[in-house]
Amino acid sequence: MTNKELNRYDRAGHPLATVVDCGGVEIGGGMFQIIAGPCSVESEEQLMCTARAVKAAGATLLRGGAFKPRTSPRSFQGLGAEGIRLLLEAKRETGLPVVSELMNINHLELFNDVDVIQIGARNMQNFDLLKEIAAHSKKPVLLKRGFSATIGELLASAEYLLEGGNPNVVLCERGIRTFVHETRNTPDLVAVPVLHERTHLPVIVDPSHATGVARLVKPVACAAAAIGADGLIVEVHNDPAHALCDGNQSLTPEQFSDMVRAVNLILPNACK
Amino acid sequence: MTNKELNRYDRAGHPLATVVDCGGVEIGGGMFQIIAGPCSVESEEQLMCTARAVKAAGATLLRGGAFKPRTSPRSFQGLGAEGIRLLLEAKRETGLPVVSELMNINHLELFNDVDVIQIGARNMQNFDLLKEIAAHSKKPVLLKRGFSATIGELLASAEYLLEGGNPNVVLCERGIRTFVHETRNTPDLVAVPVLHERTHLPVIVDPSHATGVARLVKPVACAAAAIGADGLIVEVHNDPAHALCDGNQSLTPEQFSDMVRAVNLILPNACK
Amino acid sequence: MTNKELNRYDRAGHPLATVVDCGGVEIGGGMFQIIAGPCSVESEEQLMCTARAVKAAGATLLRGGAFKPRTSPRSFQGLGAEGIRLLLEAKRETGLPVVSELMNINHLELFNDVDVIQIGARNMQNFDLLKEIAAHSKKPVLLKRGFSATIGELLASAEYLLEGGNPNVVLCERGIRTFVHETRNTPDLVAVPVLHERTHLPVIVDPSHATGVARLVKPVACAAAAIGADGLIVEVHNDPAHALCDGNQSLTPEQFSDMVRAVNLILPNACK
Amino acid sequence: MTNKELNRYDRAGHPLATVVDCGGVEIGGGMFQIIAGPCSVESEEQLMCTARAVKAAGATLLRGGAFKPRTSPRSFQGLGAEGIRLLLEAKRETGLPVVSELMNINHLELFNDVDVIQIGARNMQNFDLLKEIAAHSKKPVLLKRGFSATIGELLASAEYLLEGGNPNVVLCERGIRTFVHETRNTPDLVAVPVLHERTHLPVIVDPSHATGVARLVKPVACAAAAIGADGLIVEVHNDPAHALCDGNQSLTPEQFSDMVRAVNLILPNACK
Q1: CA distance B72 to chain C (A)
Q2: Quick check: C4 pLDDT over 80?
Q3: Is C182 on the interface with B (CB under 8 A)?
Q4: Helix C151-163 to helix C127-136 angle, to the nearest 10 degrees?
Q5: Looking at the DSSP assignment, which residues form a beta bridge with residue B203?
Q6: Which of A6, B17, C230, D247 is most open to solvent, judged by the fewest CB atoms within 10 Å of its CB?
Q7: Could you say which of A103, A125, A177 has the minimum Cβ distance to residue C122?
Q8: CA-to-CA distance for D105 and C99, rounded, in angstroms?
Q9: Chain C residues with CB-CB distance to A127 below 8 A
Q10: Is the pLDDT of residue B1 over 80?
Q11: For residue C14, with 0-12 CB atoms within 10 Å meaning exposed, 13-18 middle and 19 or more buried, which class applies?
Q12: Which residues, in sequence order, are CB contacts of B45 under 8 Å at separation 6+?
């Protein structure tokens, strides 16, 4: 059963698609989910308002950052423990399982009631963090591809989690860094079928970071659904113009609702 | 009506989508077309066999290279004039309008009965060729994006044609060069909605060159349809294993037929 | 003196070049240093032999990895605490100050007698690690540029250290990821004068990782010296063919000695 | 003597460095030359003034564009035949051999007295132009690397010239397109030793296009000399602030003189 030549992520050794249970909601193997919510948890009102709206529009998980990896130390760094507390309150109210980014293993116990741990693009090769998460938690991990990581490197990072004892890994394509500057990043959508050939793990797409432009989120979401992605993670804000972070790429609840409708029309005929 | 600030390609000055008549087949403004055929015209049998097959599967234009831009001077350079002759024979037999690449203005008269002149990625910034085509022909031009051209540069090259007097320009996204080497190029599908915002010209996608891998052509074609492309150009060969050029990325007629079916299921719900 | 508009790294607010004291050896402001040693500490014999050789050839600091960030969990991960112990033994014997990579803040006390803490390219945006180092140590930090980080992002990461209270930051250009695959990375040497314009912090170059090819280390080292770098960090191994890590890019002691000689001829006429 | 396995550019089949005679001035095999002059020939006064100045500062060939490949059709396209006429006048007055870009084979006879034909980066894969030049001229060709061409592709383009019968090819590294936007392009200086390993053809560097910033030309020129380049091609303008093209990257005569001095100090100790 164990084969030294194969990695644990290899489809060759595990032909069936892995389905990851994310707080009662399944991703992978034909189960398509939409994770939505604000880039950062900013306040109770902002989060509750957004959470209710994304649930009403059809999101099945809620995202919200409490610890934010910001390029500059002078940018808003997130509400921290208070952000997690608000997220759990939104979970109680809406019933949506919640996803939040972990940047530091010392924060792990704050995530006890968080359903999915997100590892951000900048930490995809923070191997010590991956090892420690795998050692201490069996919670689903949403592993975002580094913005210049090859597909092989993304899979090798997943292997740190799988080998460390956590089999519940969801991969996320979130755009790569190229010479193109009309968009913040270039969505590498063909990574979805390439990953599906090479691994049994589910693969979702983040059209918000991949483009950096709210107007482009819907078309990229439709393309991601068509190409066979197992889900989406989308930034939605009740008032994007006043968001503390990533307002340019955040959808309003109305735009999000329109996107969900468009994606749902594509899904029955997605490429298999 | 003329505005010095605007380029001729700008959507701002021309809100209606341009529809380009390609030998009786219309591309743009809601008219989606599939161009298919071999990378290179290799022989009468190869071309006729492939042409009949792609027509039967639903292609509405036939492609085939007679003059081939090859990285090495020792690679097969195409059949030249004889390739054009065979292509026109296939046109007569199948009734499909034909698309072929022009690399040298001195060959223009050979293209008299060719319906669409293709400008390849490597010649996207061959400004003299663009000027001369515009000066001597009103035929539709399929302008492929250079593999490292920004969207602004692609549009500026289109402007050479428009300003030179040829308004019949179809743009083509065919993959960009990035650090990713799991695929030959990275399909920059988000370029489709970005281009639709900025220009009234139709935009098609080439999933064959964009990926370089036959197995990935169908998923990328589906994503291109979903994201709002106005058409596809796809390499099909009756016997890819023996193709003189690009066999790895060529579909068999059966694979192409399956791709057309999949794309047609997506199209009615494509992102608008 | 404090200016809210300026970052602490800005040259505008601090025209004099910062000189960082690395265990008695100064880097910056005209002081050029060569750091050399093996990618990984593998054994006492390997390290001592290499350490003596690089000292004899003119290196002024010794490098050696004890904790290694490896793409795959199945690759050699370093000797850990034992590697640090051997490194300190080599320091005692040769008198060279030592540089080693820290990947996990919990290892900080193992680094008590290490002279310079290296933050690797993959951790350049591990903001929690940067904050914690700055909070707990005033030791010099060698901050390597992520392989897809812009210059602005490198500086913003340095700001996390400076703002956190550690002013002893040395920046390191180690190659960027591009479409070019003839070399492992593309050395972005022009980053050196660009950084010198924007910041007072010293900037060194790593020609080993930047090229991935031993034969190319000497020419890149000469170019780095000519363009105004404040130092080099070079991988040297007493037996590269049997190195557990990065053997392809490691110099033999003889090649290193030849490189030092070549660099020393350039230095007096380096671009100022 | 002919070996089917080898390309004509291969060093393996031709260990001695090729020395190209450029109107009496030799490039390659230890002969280092500096080509300088304006991006575009704009007027007699501009050209004569700049030509005299670059000669006085130590340039050994004069560059000047008469036919300009411009991204937009609305940008200044060069003086054409009149630009060539002025360039030849400057040649007569200063005695410097001249280099100018050819974009269209129909202009070839205008270049009868031009000493070196430049093929620009955008035409590096304009294979018909390469074939026609080789068929009709034995003049030295300065072949610039496309901004996204691999080293293998540059060499394959050189092979079109060599195989076509023109052995007088000088290669030019002029910066590649990467995600970095602090400079216009990223100078890929390590391409110089990589090319010297693979080919006997001379390799020069264009620090003006590689950086796009006048202040960075001198440091990159020094690094190019140190890494073993066979020459430089540098944009100089008597009044950069009023240049019709590329003023940002043009040196004043004084800056150029300072650059030549700095490069000459490096050259005797360049990496071999």
Answers
A1: 18
A2: no
A3: no
A4: 30
A5: B171
A6: A6
A7: A125
A8: 58
A9: 69-70, 73, 103, 122
A10: no
A11: middle
A12: none
pLDDT tens by residue, C209-250? 999 999 999 999 999 999 999 999 999 999 999 998 888 999
Tell me how far apart the alpha carbons of residues C83 and A158 are, in angstroms, rounded to a whole number. Answer: 27
* pLDDT, tens only, B132-188: 999 999 999 999 999 999 999 999 999 999 999 999 999 999 999 999 998 999 999
Burial class for C256, CB neighbours closer than 10 Å (0-12, 13-18, 19+): buried
β-bridge pairing D25-27 and D203-205 = unpaired
The DSSP result for D191-203, as a single string, is HHHHHHHHBSS-E
Residue A220 contacts B where some CB pair is shorter than 8 Å: yes
Instruction: Provide the pairing of β-strand D20-22 with D25-27.
Output: antiparallel
Do D124 and B126 meet the contact criterion of CB atoms below 8 Å apart?
no
C169 touches chain A (CB under 8 A): no
User: In this prediction, what percent of chain D has a pLDDT beyond 90?
Assistant: 95
CB distance from A178 to chain D under 8 Å?
Answer: yes
Stretch C21-34: mean pLDDT: 97
Question: Which pair of structure tokens corresponds to residue C82?
Answer: 């034992």
- ipTM here: 0.96
By C-alpha distance, the chain A residue nearest B178 is A178
With an 8 Å Cβ cutoff, are C153 and A71 in contact?
yes
Q: What is the pLDDT of residues C148-170, one digit of tens each?
A: 999 999 999 999 999 999 999 99
Considering only the beta carbons, identify the residue of B176, B216, B226 that sits closest to A178. B176
- Give me the pLDDT at residue C249, please: 94
| Residue B178: closest C-alpha in chain D | D178
Average pLDDT over residues D119-134: 97
By C-alpha distance, the chain D residue nearest C264 is D269
Q: Give me chain D's average pLDDT, please.
A: 96
* pTM of the model as a whole: 0.96
Q: Are residues D235 and D250 in contact, defined by beta-carbon separation less than 8 angstroms? A: yes
Residue D25 and residue D60 in contact, taking contact as beta carbons nearer than 8 Å: yes
Give me the pLDDT at residue A4, please: 61
Query: Shortest CB distance from A219 goes to which of B151, B179, B227?
Result: B227
The pLDDT value recorded for residue D81 is 97
Chains contacting C (3+ CB pairs below 8 angstroms): A, B, D
Chain C touched by D183 (CB under 8 Å):
yes
Chains that touch A (3 or more CB pairs under 8 A): B, C, D
For the segment B81-113, what is each residue's pLDDT rounded down to a tens digit? 999 999 999 999 999 999 999 999 999 999 999
* Residue D182 touches chain A, beta carbons under 8 Å: no
Tell me which residues of chain A have a pLDDT lower than 50: 1-2
Q: Please, where are the H alpha helices in chain D?
A: 44-57, 81-94, 127-136, 151-164, 191-198, 207-211, 214-227, 253-266
| Bridge partners (DSSP) listed for residue D40 | D65
10 Å CB burial of residue C5 (0-12, 13-18, 19+) is exposed
| Interacting residues of D77 by C-beta distance below 8 A, sequence separation 6+ | D67, D68, D70
> What pLDDT score does D35 carry?
98
User: Under an 8 A CB cutoff, do A219 and B193 touch?
Assistant: yes
Q: How confident is the model at residue C78 (pLDDT cuts 50, 70, 90)?
A: very high
Which residue of chain A has the CA closest to D148? Answer: A179
pLDDT at D31 over 90: yes
Per-residue pLDDT averaged across B20-28, rounded? 98
* Minimal-distance CA residue of chain A relative to D177: A179
C181, closest residue in chain D (CA to CA): D150
- Which of A148, A177, A179 is the closest to D177 by Cβ? A179
Taking all residues of chain C, what is their mean pLDDT, rounded to a whole number?
96
Q: Which two tokens stand for residue B200?
A: 């009234």
Under 8 Å CB-to-CB from D242, ≥6 apart: which residues? none
Residue D1: the pLDDT is 38
For residue B105, the distance in angstroms to the closest alpha carbon of chain A comes to 31
